[in-house]
Design brief:
With about 250 residues, the chain is of the alpha/beta class. Helices cover about 35% and strands about 15% of the residues. It has a domain at about 55-225: Rossmann fold, CATH 3.40.50.11240. The protein has 9 helices and 8 strands. The strands form 2 sheets. Strands 1-3-2-4-5-6 form a 6-stranded mixed β-sheet, with helices on both faces. Strands 7-8 form a two-stranded antiparallel sheet. Helix 7 (about 115-130) packs across helix 9. One of its GO terms (cellular component) is ethanolamine ammonia-lyase complex. Belongs to the EutC family.
């Protein structure tokens, strides 16, 4: 009997992280498959409930200046139960109006602390190498923050573009995936359709270099065309093209 006949799913299993062809032990899954699932579930829960060490993160970013801004969710329990509070900044933490910038980076914990701690700084550094002469605000460290949190935070710096690097909702195969959300002229009330998203940035997904290339392409085109979101898309050749604007 050939290896394929013994395990017809073997060749597919090598090409995907999905759980396929797990086998059976009587009327249940094999013990190894059950234990693997329980471990993946525990890692996902740890990612959601974990806390980002923002002090260590600021040290990793040094000498780049940082400012820590909290959302209106006072703790992790409230953050998970009240997504709306995670989208709003704590006004007391916002800086006074001052210099204006082309770009503001917001590093937000989101739904995966491990994603932020593993990938946010390397991705930020890769972006900075590609941004050239653009002026960049002090990095905003968003605590108990969701994507829309970046709109208010970046607007406080008068930034033309907000780039939110945030921990994505963990799955059972990847608990530490980072996402990047780019918004032109961020302000409170921006819709998700007005953003561009680069997702699945992790060790087995999109590399820092490729993700940074995509992010910076979008930023340049956002500033040139004065828009982000569904009207701006990346074509197959790697360029960014604007779609004809549709009036509501």
């Amino acid at each position: 009997m050939t290896p394929f006949e013994r395990d017809p799913f073997a060749r597919f299993r090598n090409a995907t992280r999905a759980r396929i062809g797990l086998g059976r032990a009587g009327d249940a899954l094999p013990t190894s498959a059950i234990l693997d699932f329980q471990l993946a579930h525990a890692r996902a829960r740890d990612a959601v409930h974990g806390q980002v060490d923002f002090v260590a993160l600021a040290k990793q970013l040094a000498p780049v200046p940082t400012i820590r801004i909290r959302s209106r969710a006072k703790d992790r329990t409230i953050y998970l139960a009240r997504p709306d509070l995670g989208r709003q900044t704590n006004a007391a933490d916002l800086p006074s109006p001052g210099d204006r910038y082309d770009i503001a980076f917001i590093i937000a914990d989101g739904l995966s602390a491990s994603a932020v701690e593993h990938h946010a700084v390397p991705l930020f550094n890769a972006c900075m190498k590609r941004l050239g002469a653009f002026s960049v605000a002090p990095v905003i460290l968003g605590e108990q923050a969701r994507v829309a949190f970046g709109d208010e935070a970046a607007a406080a710096f008068g930034a033309e573009v907000a780039i939110v690097l945030i921990g994505e909702r963990p799955g059972l195969s990847v608990p530490d995936s980072l996402g990047a959300y780019i918004t032109f002229r961020p302000q409170s009330g921006r819709r998700d359709s007005e953003r561009n998203c680069i997702s699945n940035i992790h060790a087995d997904g999109l590399s820092y270099e490729v993700a940074a290339d995509k992010i910076v392409w979008i930023v340049r085109e956002a500033l040139r065309l004065q828009l982000t979101g569904v009207d701006l898309k990346e074509n197959a050749e790697g360029a960014i093209e604007a779609l004809p604007h549709q009036e509501a």
